[in-house]
């Protein structure tokens, strides 16, 4: 696949998750013995890209890794997932982004994230990817890289008529107003909606009110994901909040469900663009609901083959 065929470009982060399970979290200076250790591929940008790729989008990732074993392994992971790596670079100046996670037997955790190489992704890297960014169907950004770089990517896409999804995660209270005007779909969760609006988003009604405020800041549509309750949306065409429920499923591990949702949405916007956004959100709910039924982050994301074919049809279900 050449980068000219790419339909979904994600400009964002990669993190290696180093997960230790222990009876309890250690105190300062203490060593505890754990009973399980595993390494996983994470980072919001990479997660969203991998989900879109698994559904059949021709994806490219624009990101920065370290020149280390984690960076090398991540590069191979992208190749294994069918993601174009022409715009994945490795730097000797910083380590690959890493999240050291300790989980105790009660399921509580303590996490240290070192963004490392992610923060060295810069506007020069975007220039190298400018052909792919300007000819894609959808561009996706988050906030785990330098915010100015995310904003520049959104603007580059916008200027070429490419549809944009912005996921303001992790949440920041202050967001450059241009993030709103550069977003076709502004997709956040309840805590992000709360931080951005100052509203206490405790229920659907408050989430709807927050969504209307976010919409008024200049994006074309706003989706707020609501966990087990699905999501809600508003758009310039219809600013009345519309709740889109998700079916009840046995949830095992909800880590990365939000990224599965965003990746699925990118797939639908790129490959079934004539669907109403409400229908895309309904189908993205269904895909994210599959992801919560298996352990892990990227490992829990369903592929096209594992999903009902109706999810990929052009008409509404
Ligand atoms: N228990 C669940 N049952 C069914 N679907 C779920 C469940 N939890 C999450 N989902 C699906 O995943 C989507 C995203 O979930 P959520 O709003 O919790 O995102 P998030 O907080 O960004 O997730 P995370 O931080 O865990 O990645 C929801 O809109 C829904 O479609
Ligand atoms: C929303 O996403 C943030 C990451 O930006 C996460 O820390 C938080 O727990 C999520 N909130 C909910 C309600 O799931």
From TrEMBL:
GO CC list: cytosol; nucleus
Binding of ATP, residues: 189, 225-230, 258-259, 285
InterPro entries: Carboh/pur_kinase_PfkB_CS, PfkB_dom, Ribo/fructo_kinase, Ribokinase, Ribokinase-like
Signal peptide coordinates: none
Residue intervals of the Carbohydrate kinase PfkB domain: 8-303
Stretches of the chain forming a coiled coil according to its record: none
Keywords noted in UniProt: ATP-binding, Carbohydrate metabolism, Cytoplasm, Kinase, Magnesium, Metal-binding, Nucleotide-binding, Nucleus, Potassium, Transferase
Residues the record marks as active site: 259
GO MF, one annotated term: ribokinase activity
Cofactor: Mg(2+)
Lineage top rank: taxon: Eukaryota
Pfam families the record matches: PfkB (PF00294)
Family per record: Belongs to the carbohydrate kinase pfkB family. Belongs to the carbohydrate kinase PfkB family. Ribokinase subfamily.
Annotated protein name in UniProt: Ribokinase
Organism: Erpetoichthys calabaricus
